[in-house]
Amino acid sequence: MSPTLVRHQLPHSGSMRCDGPHAPARSRERTRDWAEIQERMLVPLYEATYDRLGVGPGTRLLGLGCGSGLALLLAAARGAQVSGVDADETRLELARERLTPDGMPEHTRVVSGGLEAAAPGDAPFNVVTAFHPVGCVSTVEGLTTSLTAAAGLAERGSAVVLGGWGPVERCATAGVLRVAQRLADPPSDYVVGSAGWLPSGRDDLEDLADRAGLRPDGSGRVACPFGYADMASAVRGLLSTGLFDAALEVAEQRQVEKELAEALHPHQRADGTVWMPNVFRYLIARTR
To answer: Under a CB-based contact definition with an 8 Å cutoff, are residues 10 and 240 in contact?
Structure first.
């Protein structure tokens, strides 16, 4: 396995927008919260798609918006050769720690550069994943460009996996994420390019695949419940997603955290844990 991780400016990869003198520390804190609290919530989505595609030895996988690398690590554990790109350098640093621990072979390569730097040297990719971006505002145009570029690095007929939220009525977290949507209003205050959340449409994934010149080849739904040890962990985990960044640009963090906790209260159990059942959807498309 030769994991390659590069920094590439995706339209949204769950990265934090942090400004000011304390920005690096906040970014690192959010990255740890994502890796230690939130990222694992999507493991059922990763595993379901890997099972369906038979990811393993012989798979050359490119992860768009790879974040701190958990999905790549799971693919690598199956024997796949993995590469990842993300806009957030702090998340890539953690992904490098996960994928290139002490004792890895010398041929393990971790570089920094554009999307083309992720291309495997011996053969093109045969699987591309974009698990996180779909379902966030201001992503379609930029993600289409990234998917088109990634498809150009893959062999013909390769699988491209797109992930997103399922129907609103089957996602308990949707009601909580409306806090982010409401606090980010009015639209005139919204900063283009910020992370945010909008309800998923029935054909969002298919529309995105069509824009990127991909051919749909099957879809599925996966239960991805969000479970947290306590209210504080739930707040930290959800803030780490980047979906509240637009709200944080127009409201104080204390207010965002307070209203988020209030929205989470109906999902808190008697033992203090927070539990929200969700369904995520994925589409498998093919390069032409």
So the answer is: no
